[in-house]
Specification:
Blueprint: H1 2-27, E1 32-39, H2 44-47, H3 53-63, E2 69-75, E3 79-87, H4 90-99, H5 112-120, E4 131-138, H6 148-168, E5 171-177, H7 184-194, E6 197-200, H8 207-218, E7 223-224, E8 230-233, E9 237-245, E10 254-256, E11 262-263, E12 272-276, E13 280-286, E14 291-296, E15 304-309, E16 311-315, E17 321-323, E18 328-336, E19 339-340, H9 344-347, E20 351-355, E21 361-363, E22 365-366, E23 373-378, E24 385-394, E25 399-409, E26 413-420, E27 425-432, E28 442-450, E29 456-459, E30 462-463, E31 466-472, E32 480-489, E33 495-496, E34 503-505, H10 507-513, E35 539-542, E36 545-548, H11 557-597
Parallel strand pairs: 1-2, 1-4, 4-5, 5-6, 17-25
Antiparallel strand pairs: 2-3, 7-15, 8-14, 9-13, 9-15, 10-11, 10-14, 12-13, 16-18, 18-19, 18-23, 20-21, 20-24, 22-23, 24-25, 26-27, 27-31, 28-29, 28-32, 30-31, 32-33, 32-34, 35-36
Helix pairs in contact: 1-11, 3-8, 5-6, 6-7
Length: 598
C-alpha cells in the first residue's frame, strides 16, 4: 500500500511541477543586463582633468531601474571589477555610489581587448534573449605593450574574433570616444557590428549628456513628452524623474506643480529626492499630482521626464543602422501591468505619430488582424546620416514618448539576398557602385561565424562581373553571421573602406522567403515580443479617466484544474495497473518457489 501511495504522490507532484514550470515560463520576460567599462589610463589626466567620469557614472547609477543587472569595470593595462554585477536595488546603488570615487587616471596602457574579454566571459557562453549591452568609455587607441606589433595584433583580434563572438551572444556595444585621438574606426565597428551606438564627446563637459544618451540605448526608459519646459502627469504614473541639464554657474532649476506650488533643492519632503551636480539636476517625485508640471530654468533639448507606470507604450526593436533606401518597420503597442491592451474603446482614442527632427510627421496605424498593434513602414523618407525619431502616443488623458536614434548609411556596395528555401541556401550578392569604386581594384573578404564553431573566412572572387557568396542554412535554432571586410580605391585612386552591415542567416530568413499560403481559418496572433507577456488586466478610458481592471480576460481555472486532474487520473491508472502486474508476477514467483520447496 505504501508503495502505491508513493507512486501516486510522485505522479501528482510531477504534474504540478510541469504546470508550475509552464506558468513561470509564461511570466518570464526579457531582462536588462549592462556592463560599463571605464578607461582609467594616464591620458585621462589630459582629456578628463576634472574627472567628470564620476558624476557621469553617478547619473547612470541613479537612473538605473530596479531589477536590471549591472556591473562596473575599470581598465587600463589590467581590468578590475569596480562593482560586481548584481541586481539593481537600493542597496546595490548605495554600494556603487560609494565605490565610484575610485575612478582614477593612473593606468599605463589601454587594453580594450582584455576589458571586453573579462566583462563578457560569462555572457559569451551562450546566446540569450535578454537585453545585454556594454558601454565602453575610452580616450585612446588599443595599447597593450611597448611593442606596437602586439598592440596591432590585439586590435585585429577585437575586429576579427571578439566582434563575431559578441554578435553571436547578442551583446550590443555602445561606445564613447573622449578624445579625437581615440580609435574611432574600432569603436564605430564595435557599435555598428553589434547593433549598438557610437558617440564622440568633444570634451569632458559633454560626458554626462553622451553617457545618458547611450544609457537610453542600452536600457530604454518609459518617458512622458516634454514640450518646452512643460509636461503632463496622468493618474497612471506612480513616480517621475526629471533630468535637467544646466550651464555651469547657472541657478538651480525649480519645478512648478499643477497647483502652482514651487519645489526646489531645499524642499523637504519624503516624496521628493533632489540630486544636484555641476552640469545637471535629477529630481524624483513619488506619487506626483496629476496635471501640468513646469520646469523653471533653462530649456535644454536633452532634458527628459522618465516615469514609473503600469500603463506603458512599447516598441518592437528598431535597428540602429539601416542602409539608404532600405525599409524598416516601427511597431508599437500598449500594455497595462505587462498585459497587451486590445480593447477597441481604448485603442480608438489613441493617436500615434512619428516625428523627425526636420518636422516631418508620420502616423502609425492599426495592423489588420493583429489587435493592439500599430505600425508604420519608413525608409525612403530618410536621407543618409543620423536621425532622431520621436514616437508620441496621445491617449487624450495621457501621453507617452519613445525616442529612437538611427543612422542611415549610404553604402557604396549594395547587398542583395537571394534565398532558396527548397535547397536551404542563400546567395549574398555584392554590387559595388562603379561610379564611386574602381571595381578592378577591390578585395572583399567574408567571415562566417557560428556559435561553437570556428570562423570561416573566404575571399569573394569576381566571377562574370559579379561578387557572390553562397551560405548554407545553419542547424535548427542556430544562426550564422556574415561580416565583410572591403579594401578598395576610388576611380581617382584614393583608398577607401566601404561599410557593409552584417548579414544574419537563420531559419527566420528562410521562413520569410516562403510563399504565404492563406489559411481557411486564420489564427489570430500577437506580436512575437508579446508572446511571453502574462495575462493580468486591461485598461479602458471612460469619461476621460483611466479605469483599471475593466473586463479582463480571466484565466480559465476550471479548465486548468480539470486538465491537471485528468493527468493525475491517467498517472494513477497507469500506476495501479503496473502495481497489479508487479504484484501478480511476485505472487507467481512465490508460488513457484513454494512448489519447489514442497
Amino acid at each position: 500500500m505504501h508503495t502505491k501511495l508513493k507512486f501516486v504522490l510522485i505522479c501528482f507532484l510531477s504534474s504540478c511541477i510541469c504546470v508550475a514550470s509552464y506558468a513561470a515560463d509564461k511570466k518570464s520576460k526579457r531582462g536588462n543586463k549592462l556592463q560599463v567599462l571605464i578607461d582609467v589610463s594616464g591620458s585621462m589626466k589630459k582629456n578628463d582633468p576634472k574627472n567628470l567620469r564620476i558624476p557621469a557614472v553617478k547619473l547612470l547609477i541613479n537612473l538605473l531601474p530596479n531589477g536590471s543587472k549591472v556591473g562596473l569595470w575599470l581598465f587600463s593595462e589590467k581590468t578590475s571589477e569596480l562593482v560586481k554585477m548584481g541586481r539593481v536595488n537600493k542597496q546595490w546603488k548605495q554600494k556603487a555610489l560609494l565605490k565610484i570615487n575610485k575612478i582614477h587616471s593612473r593606468g599605463l596602457l589601454t587594453n580594450i581587448e582584455e576589458a571586453i574579454d573579462q566583462s563578457t566571459k560569462k555572457w559569451l557562453l551562450s546566446p540569450s534573449m535578454q537585453n545585454r549591452s556594454l558601454i565602453i568609455l575610452t580616450d585612446g587607441m588599443v595599447d597593450t605593450s611597448k611593442d606596437i606589433m602586439q598592440s596591432a595584433e590585439s586590435r585585429a583580434r577585437i575586429m576579427e574574433q571578439q566582434i563575431p563572438l559578441l554578435q553571436q551572444a547578442g551583446i550590443k556595444v555602445q561606445t564613447i570616444a573622449l578624445s579625437k585621438d581615440a580609435d574611432a574606426e574600432l569603436l564605430e565597428k564595435l557599435a555598428t557590428g553589434t547593433g549598438g551606438w557610437s558617440e564622440t564627446a568633444q570634451s569632458a563637459d559633454q560626458l554626462q549628456k553622451v553617457f545618458f544618451k547611450l544609457f537610453k540605448q542600452a536600457i530604454p526608459q518609459d518617458t512622458a513628452p516634454l514640450v518646452g519646459n512643460t509636461f503632463t502627469i496622468d493618474k497612471a504614473i506612480k513616480e517621475f524623474s526629471v533630468l535637467i541639464f544646466k550651464q555651469t554657474g547657472s541657478k538651480h532649476p525649480q519645478l512648478m506643480t499643477p497647483s502652482n506650488k514651487k519645489i526646489n533643492l531645499k524642499s523637504r519632503s519624503s516624496k521628493v529626492s533632489w540630486l544636484s551636480e555641476n552640469n545637471y539636476d535629477l529630481v524624483t517625485i513619488k506619487k506626483p499630482k496629476v496635471g501640468l508640471w513646469r520646469i523653471i530654468g533653462n530649456i535644454d533639448p536633452d532634458n527628459q521626464v522618465m516615469i514609473v507606470t503600469d500603463l506603458k507604450f512599447e516598441l518592437d526593436e528598431i535597428p540602429t543602422h539601416i542602409l539608404f533606401k532600405d525599409n524598416f518597420e516601427v511597431s508599437g503597442f500598449f500594455t497595462n501591468q505587462q498585459q497587451l491592451i486590445t480593447r477597441s474603446d481604448f485603442l480608438q482614442l489613441i493617436d500615434l505619430s512619428i516625428f523627425l527632427e526636420d518636422g516631418q510627421r508620420f502616423k502609425m496605424t492599426a495592423v489588420s488582424g493583429k489587435r493592439g498593434l500599430f505600425r508604420k513602414t519608413l525608409g525612403l523618407e530618410l536621407k543618409p546620416g543620423r536621425h532622431t525619431l520621436k514616437i508620441i502616443a496621445d491617449g487624450q488623458t495621457f501621453k507617452r514618448e519613445i525616442t529612437q536614434v538611427i543612422e542611415v548609411i549610404n553604402s557604396l556596395i549594395t547587398v542583395k539576398k537571394h534565398i532558396d528555401p527548397t535547397l536551404h541556401k542563400v546567395t549574398i550578392e555584392l554590387i559595388p557602385n562603379k561610379f564611386a569604386i574602381n571595381t578592378d581594384m577591390i578585395t572583399i573578404e567574408a567571415s562566417i561565424s557560428q556559435l561553437g564553431k570556428q570562423t570561416v573566412k573566404q575571399v569573394i572572387e569576381k566571377k562574370s562581373g559579379q561578387w557572390k557568396l553562397l551560405v548554407n542554412e545553419p542547424e535548427t535554432g542556430a544562426s550564422k553571421i556574415v561580416n565583410f571586410s572591403v579594401i578598395a580605391n576610388t576611380p581617382q585612386g584614393e583608398s577607401i573602406s566601404p561599410v557593409i552591415l552584417p548579414v544574419t542567416v537563420n531559419a527566420a530568413l528562410f521562413r520569410s522567403a516562403k510563399p504565404k499560403v492563406p489559411d481557411i481559418k486564420p489564427a489570430k496572433k500577437k506580436p512575437n515580443k508579446l508572446a511571453k507577456i502574462a495575462d493580468k488586466k486591461a485598461v479602458e478610458i471612460v469619461d476621460d479617466k483611466v479605469v483599471d481592471n475593466v473586463e479582463p480576460e480571466p484565466v480559465n481555472w476550471m479548465k486548468t484544474i480539470i486538465i491537471i486532474l485528468m493527468i493525475n487520473i491517467v498517472f494513477i491508472a497507469i500506476g495501479f495497473f503496473v502495481y497489479k502486474y508487479v504484484k501478480k508476477q511476485s505472487a507467481a514467483k512465490q508460488d513457484q518457489l513454494l512448489s519447489r520447496l514442497d
